[in-house]
Design a protein that fits this description.
The structure is a homodimer. With about 230 residues, the first copy, chain A, is an alpha/beta fold. Helices cover about 40% and strands about 25% of the residues of chain A. Chain A has two domains: about 120 residues, Rossmann fold (3-Layer(aba) Sandwich), CATH 3.40.50; about 100 residues, Winged helix-like DNA-binding domain superfamily/Winged helix DNA-binding domain (Arc Repressor Mutant, subunit A). The structure holds a DNA duplex (30 and 30 nucleotides).
Chain lengths: ~230, ~230
DNA sequence: TAGATGAAAGGTTAATTAAGGTTAAGGGCT
DNA sequence: AGCCCTTAACCTTAATTAACCTTTCATCTA
């Protein structure tokens, strides 16, 4: 069963390219040029994700997003925008967007963001019941972190964060990906939230000096394990 | 060192402009007006990316792309076209194009897409966990520089700069390559930024007089290690 | 042709801005 | 209540920008 993408774009020419490319990647794509028709499609097509151009004739992307949100709280929405003002981005998140991409974008980039929101991890190996992280033992499903006799129960977010960092250990993980994965979008409200959780994890992990969460300012983090 | 672009374009006038612009951005550009000659160039020039106009005399862009694909599965291909028919676009992607730009296009847009496609397949030569630089030990992923008992944590940019210089030690590295690698572009502002980071690194490295970052005015730097 | 001159590139240090770190105070949920 | 998440306030540090200084090199002039 292919994942379904509802793609709202008034530039027909660009739209056809994007649609066709996504289809070759194994998605079912319904393309619509008129914002006012989106709601109808939502009911019949049942998309897994929406990609909305912001500059639409008639109804703009924000309005469409708000309509979608009224019906479906969780459906991931990606905005495409030519504008670069922060206000627009903020507005995008406020009306319920999960991610945004600036035009001109490369199709590769769009695919990455789509897969990210759909949680299709290219090669994310499944975690075992028990993972050895430095001197710690981490039990992902139990949300438990053990060092020697010291058992610490992790909260859901703590555990998700550790999981994500561990899966991508020694690689740079982008803030944006963490936020999308754990909080569902990367607005700057949640952004500060991530900082708080990184601090918490660092606190837990500091007993083993061979483990470190390195900050890459403006980009994300890198989880180092000896 | 520079990335190589094979650019196939029959409009000589436009072609010259694009070629020159790309060259100022630090690419080596081979321009060809005849589609039939492309394959020869492929063997000798070994481009990192191809930019193909679709309307070519003799052999059209799709045919050329198919030929390229037969030899190299992964080489990124960008199509340029003035045609507006969708069938052409679809055809382009089916013959293995990675991206697509409609004429008239802005050169900025072309550059964005080129860089995007290059990043995807780009992977720098790997460094070891621990590299010995003069009397220092450098831990690239840990962003750590050690001299005797003296541990210095490097910031991301400091570490990236040192990595780049070390990989190209004893060779001349161009400012614009450094800028493109660390800052993503070589605009005027980042240029001064690089100066600041070079000064910082020199400060850190001055404890070992056998190491030196030599300035080559107007070109770049040379990292000397005894 | 030596030396003067000025422009351009880069060096250095400091100021500014922005990102993130830390801690603690709300606020909702069970 | 107790837990977890969020938000806010305040602090620290990295990254950027700016300002001013030095070197280099080409060109001009005596």
């Amino acid at each position: 069963m292919n994942k379904k993408i509802l793609y709202v774009e008034d530039e027909v020419f660009l739209g056809k390219i994007v649609k066709e490319t996504l289809e070759t990647k194994g998605y079912d794509v319904l393309m619509e040029t008129n914002g006012a028709h989106v709601i109808n499609h939502l009911q019949r097509f049942h998309p897994d994700i929406c990609v909305l151009d912001i500059m639409l004739p008639g109804k703009n992307g924000y309005e469409v997003a708000a309509e979608i949100r009224a019906i479906n709280e969780l459906l991931p929405i990606i905005f495409l925008t030519a504008k670069v003002q922060t206000e627009d981005v903020v507005k995008g998140f406020k009306t319920g967007g999960n991610d945004y991409i600036r035009k001109p974008f490369s199709i590769e980039e769009l695919i990455v963001r789509i897969e990210n929101l759909l949680q299709i991890k290219q090669s994310a190996p499944d975690l075992l019941e028990e993972e050895k992280i430095g001197n710690f033992l981490f039990y992902p499903t139990k949300q438990l972190l053990v060092l020697n006799e010291n058992h610490r129960k992790l909260s859901f977010r703590e555990s998700e964060l550790l999981k994500f960092l561990w899966i991508h250990r020694n690689a740079i993980v982008q803030r944006r990906d963490l936020l999308n994965h754990i909080w569902g979008n990367d607005s700057f409200f949640n952004s500060r939230n991530l900082d708080v959780y990184v601090t918490k994890l660092r606190g837990y992990l500091k007993e083993d000096p061979s483990i470190e969460i390195i900050t890459i300012k403006g980009v994300g983090y890198r989880f180092i394990t000896g």
